[in-house]
Structure formats: structure tokens, C-alpha cells
Amino acid sequence: MASSDTLAYLRSRYLPDHLIGELLSKRWIDNAIPFSALLLTIVVLGSIIPDFLSLSSLSDLARQFAEFGLVVLALTVVMISGGIDLSVASVFSLAVLFSLIGVNVYELPVPVVLAGILVMGMGCGAINGVLVGYLRLRAFLTTLVSLIIFRSIYEIVFVKMSTSMMVGFSMSDLWLFIGEGTVLGVPTSLVITLVIALAWHLVLSRMRPGWRLTAVGGARRSAFNAGIDVRFMVFLTYVVSSTMCALAGFLFAARLGSTGSDTGVGLEVQALTAAVLGGTAIGGGRGSVAKAIIGSLLVLMLTNGLINLGISGPITSTILGAILLFAVFVDMRWQKHRHRILAKVYVSPAYLSLPPAPKVDAPGSPYVLNDRLRSVEIIGLGEIEGPEDVILDRDDNLYCGTRHGDIVRFFGPDHKRSEVFAHIGGHPLGMAFDRTGNLLVCIGGMGLFQVAPDKTVTKLTDETNRSWTSVVDDSRLRLADDVDVAPDGRVYFSEATIRYEQEDWATDALESRASGRMICYDPRTGKTHTEIPKLVFANGVTMCPDGQSFMFAESWTCSISRYWFDGPKKGTTERVISSLPGYPDNINRASDGNYWLALLGMRGPALDLAMRMPGFRKRMARRVAPDQWLYPNINTGCVVKFNEKGEILDNLWDLGGRNHPMITSMREHRGWLYLGGVSNNRIGRYRLPDADPDWCGQDAYWGPRP
Amino acid sequence: MIGAIKRAWANFRGFDLTGSTVPPMDGPLRPNAKLDAAPLLLELADVDNLVLRGQQILCSVGQEIHTLAPEIGNSGEALSITGTHSVGKPVTSMAAAGDLLAVAVEGEGIRIERPGGASTELIRPEGLNVECITAMAFADPSTLLIAVGSARNPAHRWKHDLMTKTEAGSVWRVDVGARSAVSIASGLAFPSGIIVSKDRLFVSEAWRHRVVSMGLDGSFQQIALGSLPAYPGRIAPAAEGGFWLAMFAPRNPLVEFVLKEDEYRSRMIETIDPEYWIAPSLVTGRSFLEPIQGGARKKLNMLKPWSPTWSAGLVVRCDGSMSMLRNYQSRADGDVHGVTSMCEADGRLLVGAKGSGKIVAIDELAGHAAR
Prior knowledge:
Helix content of chain A: 40-55%
Oligomer: heterodimer
Keywords (chain A): Cell membrane, Membrane, Transmembrane, Transmembrane helix
GO cellular component, one term (chain A): plasma membrane
Number of strands of chain A: 27
CATH topology of the largest domain in chain A: ABC transporter involved in vitamin B12 uptake, BtuC
Low-confidence stretches of chain A: none
GO molecular function (chain A): transmembrane transporter activity
Number of helices of chain A: 19
Strand content of chain A: 15-25%
CATH superfamily of chain B: TolB, C-terminal domain
Radius of gyration of chain A: 34 Å
Domain Strictosidine synthase conserved region (chain A): 481-567
Mean pLDDT of chain A: 90
Helix content of chain B: 10-25%
Number of strands of chain B: 25
Largest sheet of chain A: 4 strands, antiparallel
Structural class of chain A: alpha+beta
Shape of chain A: elongated
Radius of gyration of chain B: 20 Å
Low-confidence stretches of chain B: none
CATH class of chain B: Mainly Beta
Largest interface: A-B, 40 and 33 residues
Mean pLDDT of chain B: 90
Number of domains of chain A: 2
Membrane topology (chain A): Multi-pass membrane protein
């Protein structure tokens, strides 16, 4: 190995740079920037301000956060739905005022005051909600006006009642408990806020109303078209928002027991800064409780820190304003460029050194170039698109998948007529019959499905166990590829890659990373588990006649292996063929006890060299348009026959790919070989001169018709 | 230092500082399939150097020179070989002036064949590299202008010349009588076509994707046609005025990328047969060992005409100042690839596609200059 190769190998082996792309494709990555800003703030302020992280200041911060966090959360909910609520601050101050009047002046019971305050909040919100939601006024102007009106009410009432408020004093224990008490050492108000935040988190991320809210903010018209009552949802957000602000005001009143002429002034700007800093989109459709919490903590710590440093109020506000501006800028750039960055860094090629390709035209080579597949009989030309796999039943009917999401059945014996046997929706790939004649189908992007002879479609499985170390969620099946059934009914199927969707399978070739696997579905328990992890584009699979093992292909390593799932060699894998001249796809049984193997494309020296230079491929993926990328040569296909020892016994070619440029599957049936190709528009039928004219795969697996 | 920072920034942002962005085939180069539709006159593998000597059509295949004539009784639709003679070594280029013929023979020199087989002399002027004479043109019967593609690679190793980014080409003026040669331009990146028009000289500079013009002594060099999406090759005169320009291979973004990837390129050159390189080619699809690109994968058994390809056929009609007027193409799915030579004869343009081994005819000779 050349020294540069060693370096490339070590780098691709130990530097997990594919994780960058996987992390970037996570939804929560939006929070990474605000979260690191928060950590930075804590570290910086903690080191320059003594006592910043002391218990007393933390407890103070916790109580402030309880109120401020609620307001930010309220604003976030409105912003997610695509609106904005500037009146949060004046509703907050009204709530403070009326709580104090209720408790201190009229000495009403605390629960009654709380209920009244919440009703008042709902009322304020309802005004906004009707105006914005039903009368379709501009949210910004409407809430600006209600901000002024509510504030004016506050000013009027405050002047009249300020003296009596100061004189009055509540002896209620509940009032004290809310204001100064703790639950298990945690301030009561914080507990209330955290419970509300948790509830909102569940609603927004797990429940239907939350998803509808996000839908309304993300695409109002689409949400309407999808049947969501957009006006009512918008109305509701303002009601909820004002109610939460009212609660925040109530908590504030309980904590301080007094109010001033400046209570709540500028709170809306602070809350808006917090929401935007946290990563909530101003345009709607994006936001979460975590973002609201991060944002409000950031703003609170900054304000407290600045006050601690002796910076005056107006300057603090200026600084906050500048931060708001900066956050809006970063948010805009991030949204604009995130997908571009992701597209550039996601492809992360690995080092792959293939053994030298066998010279197919050398004398003595088991491979003999020929054009035997050029003159095949054609079935279904133009009627089907993308028959990745073909299979025949005992009655000579031919089944194949199409990229339109159908399984098409051609009636035997002449295969001139056809019908849509089942419509599942995803592109059907590998197929197999089980003992009772059900057709099992792997469907790209969907999972493993079963079609009964009476055409009923059942989903068998679409998830497997989640592995702990994978960043990409590998529990969902992304590209189930080929399937076969063990004698006891267990279903073994391959998943080609967990990193790409079916349409991008060739990009996985460019990457050649071990991101495929073999999966087992047990119909007796209904459970699915990953049998062999970390395979390089796991593809064809077929049971060996011993009933204890199967052959499987790994496309990009050009190899065939055998795995024992039962018997004395249980759990072991053996390489059967380590160097094919092309990329193996499906494997199926031949009538003489050997195996047919489809090569979907051929290896070329230019790509083989690139496989040893992951940096070259990575730069290619970034610099060159995907249509111009170097790919496996799939314009020439071939079918080879091999035995259990891995010896090549026969081969059939269509050089130049006249009829079958890319052969992904072949199936022997009563003396004929049927050919399928995932991007072809026909099925080929080749007469096998020496094959058993009565051999049928379904009988060979499950015995003659019961 | 500033250059390094600029390069690093350009690398980060993906700018192109080196002119390696392939321009689109548009305007006068708008794609068509006219070369595929053109009548096929003769299938002849490796046909090159079509020239008209007097009334005789000549072409070369390897070390042999064939005389071609319309097939008797075939109303002139097809050509056939009526005579062949060998010059012993591969012919790299030919030029004719009236009945006078110059043949560049790789490693030997230039054979001057006088009318009627009166005399044949081999000249090898001092200083002139005769391994890689890619094109020749007579200014007058005693003055021959010669394009030497590269001082480092013989003509048949043109892929090496490109992939090693060699810029060792030159243009020479040979006095046939005195057997002396003067270099009039050097440091060119594979000059591959040459023609004299009045007192100006046009030279295709393949690896810089342009045609330059200069005086007959090499003075006043100008870019006559630049930023081409393909590698320009030989230039033939048009009777109506103006020129025919053959472009022997298309540029390809992946090739441009590989040209920047020094390590991959050197390992490719060292270990891989040139036929299977990521490099322009005269013909593709002959072997499954050739690399292919994403867009060239067959879908529903179709190769899209606009697929990225290593080879294509491209003949461009240019006016007297070498501005492009219109073009004749054979695209990725076509089969008239690698056009290296052309000549007008019998009222039509014969197009020699060396890659596909075909001679086809373009009948529209008139009306280009007027447009």
C-alpha cells in the first residue's frame, strides 16, 4: 500500500467525517448555535462576574426565568403559527396590576384572583385573535395597537389604585407559596413554568394540534388545503399566548408584591429577542420549547450580567437590540445556507481498496465475453418501468415491480397479458414466495410487505432495532433491497444503505461506506432485528439448500459472502467470492444447485483508483455537479453462475447494453432465465439450453403444490 | 501569499480562478444531430487527414495514404478506396496546395510529393520536432506552416499531453526549397490546427480551448475565438469564404476537475491504460472498462443525447474572422464522434470522424457567409 493510501485509509477509518453531514441533517441541529452561545455566555459572565453562578443568584435567575420564560413561550407559540404578538408585555403588566388589586386591595381568595387573571388574559387574547385570525388584520399592527391600548388601561388604573395597592397586604399562605416557596428546593413558579413548558413540548412535537400549528405557520395555504381550520388555529394561538402572559404576570405579582410605572416596559422587545435568539423563525413554521428556553436564558443572563457590570438600562437595551439584529442576520444566513452546506458535506467517501479486477478477456479466465443476452425475448416492453426483480409462481405467472409503485403480474405461459397485482406505492425491489404462497416484497423507502394470493397487502415490518452509535436514525428501513425466506419461515432481507434514499443509491457507490445491513424478520414473534450490521451496500440474498445459511452480495466491494444463521456454524460469515469484475446485485438459485448472480454494472480502473482516494471523491462531490460524477459503469450488465465454492461456471452478457444495460435480477423458471433491471423498461427471457425444463423456484423452495 | 489566500478562499467558496468552467453549448453551438443525419460515404476505421490534392481526395489511416473516389454508378453518394500507398511510419498530418502534397510522418520528417509523382523528397529541417506535427498549411508552394503539438509527446500520445498539462507546442515556418525552419510561436498548449488566410495565420490551441490568430511571422497574436466548450482541432478553408473548424472532443467538467487533482491524475497516468482514463476521447462506449458519469447512465434503456460524454462529433462553420456561424454535431448518443479532418470536394464537405471511423458529407456549403 502506498503511503498516501495508508494515510487515506487511516483517515477514513478513524475520522468519522460522515457524522458532520448526519448531524447537519438532524432537525435539532438548529439549536446548536443558540446553545453554544448560551454556554459561551455562561462561561464568560461566570468568569468575569463573581457570584454569577452562586446559589442565590441562580435562585433569583430561576424565578425570573419562570416569568420571562412563560412570556417567551407565549410569543413562540404565536410565532410558530406565523404571527407575532407584541401585546405580551402589556397583558403581562395588566395581569400584575389586577393580581395585586385583587389580592391586596379587595383581598379576594388567591384561586379566584388567578382564575380572574386567566380569564382576563383569554379576553385580551381573544380580541387579538378575532382581529388577526378572523378579520385577517395584520398581526404586527394589530398587536401593536393592543399593546398601546392595554398599556393605557394599565396607566389609568395604576394611577388610581397605586396608593391602595401599596397599603394593602395579603396574608395568604398560597400567595406566599407561589411567590417565594419551593417544591423540593425548586421555586414554585419555576415548577409551574416547567410543567407548562413540558406540556407544550409534547403538544408541539408529538401531538396533532402542535403539528397543525406548525403547518399553519409553515405554509398557510397548504395547511388550509389540508383541511386545517387556519383561522381558528390562529385565533387560538393569541388566546393561549395572552393567557400564558397573564399567568406570568400573576407569578411576577406574587414574587414582588408590588408594581411600578415601568413594569413590563420593553418586555416585548426582550421576549422577541429571546425567541429569535433561540432560533424561532419570524416567518413561522419553525420553533420549539427548547429554543424558547435557550433564548430566554440567554437574554436573562445577558441582562442580569450587564446590570451586574453596572451598565445602565438604556445601554443594556441598546445592546439587546444589537443582539436581536445580529440574531436575525445569523438566522437568515443559516436558513439560506444550511441545505447548501448539507448538500456539500453529506457525501463522505470512505477508503475502499478492491482486489485487482479479474481480466475478463484474458485466456483461461472463467469469464467469457459474449452477446448471448442481446437476442432475448422481450416481455412487457414499454408497459413497465423499473422491474428490479422478477419472480414466477407455479402457474408460470410472472411478477415484477415497477417504479410507479405497482406489482404487475404477467399471465403465463406466454406473458402477453398483464394486470396490476397490487399497488403499494413504493418501488418494489426484491421478491420471494413464502411457504403459503404469499409474495414477500422489499419496497424502497417503505419496508417489507406481503401480498397474499388474494391480493391483500400487509405491512410486515418497516423498522428494526435502533443502534446506539448511529447518528442517523437507523431504525427506519430506508432501502430494503432483496429478500428470501428460511425453511422455518424467518425472513432475511438486506438493507442497502441507511444513509441514502433509493433514488440516490448510486451516490452510496461514490461513498462506498459500510452503511448497509442484513435484517431478519421473524413472523412467529413479529419482531425485526439487525442480523449483520455494517455491510457495504448489502444487496442480493438467497437461501442455501442446507436451510442454515444464505448467500449475500455486497455491491461496492464486488463480493459474495455466506452467512450461517443456524446450525453449528451459526453466526459466522465466510467470503465466497472476493473479486468480481462488476458490482453484484440479486442472487437466485439455479436448477442445477448453483446460483445465478446479476452484475448491475462493471468495474473500471478509473473508479477503482478513485475508491482508494476518498479525498478525491469528496472534492468531486463538492465541486462537480452530480450528473458529472464518476459512477460505476452500469451501462453494461451481465449474469454469472457460481457454485458454493465461489467458482464461476457460466456467464451471459449484453455488451454495450442493447437490451439489458443494467441487470439487477434474474430468475430461472422451467428452462428459461428471466431478467430484470431497475432502470429498464422491459423484462428479458433467455432460453437456457442445458437447464431442467421443469424446474420451478417455488417448488424447489417449498415442495410441489400442497 | 495573497495568491494562496485567494486560492484557499476560492476553493472554499467554489469559485473558478482557472477558467475551468465549461461554457454551455449555446448560440452558434446549439446542439443538433446533423452529423448523425449526414449521409455516410465510407466506413474506414481511424480515418484522418482528409485533403483535396488537385481533384483527388486523400486520407490517411495509420501509415497508409488512401486515394478516395466516388463509387462508379452510385451517383456519388458513397466513396471507395481506389489506391493506397504506405509511407512506413504513421502519418500525423497532411496538407496540399494544388497538386503539391506535404505529408508529416511521425519521427521521419515531411514528405513533399510533387505533382504527378514527379518527385518525392523527405525533408527534416533542423530544429523541427517531427514527432508531433499535428497540422500543416501551405502559405505558398514554397512556404509550409507547421503546428507542432508538443515537444514532449508524440502525436498519438495527445491524451498524455493534456493530462500532464503540457504547454510545449509551437508553430514553425518551413522554407521547402531551402529545407529550413523557423519557430514563429512557442509555449502553445497543443496547437492542433493551422490555416493561412491572406496574411494572417489561425492556429487552434486545443488545451486552451481557443483559436489564436497571428501574422505569418508570429507577430500580433490575438485570440480569434476563445472559451470554447470543446477542444478545437484542424481548420479547413471554405470555398465560399471563411473556415470549417473541427473540434475533436468535448470538454467535460469532470476532466476539468481531474486536471486540478494532481495526485489522482498522476496515479491515473501511471497505472491505467489511456483508453480508460477520465479524459477526452475520440470515441466512447467501446469497452465497459471506460469510466462513465452519473448523467450517462442509461434510463429505460435510453442514453440521453445530452449525457455527459468523453467524445462527440463537432464541426463548426466559421466566418473569415473565425467567428462561429453554425455547427454540425453528433452528441453522446450519436455515432460520428472524434472529427479530426475535413475537406471540401465535389460541392460538399467531407467530414472524417476518426473516432467512429466514418466519412460523412455535409451538403450545405453555400449561404453561410451571407447570414
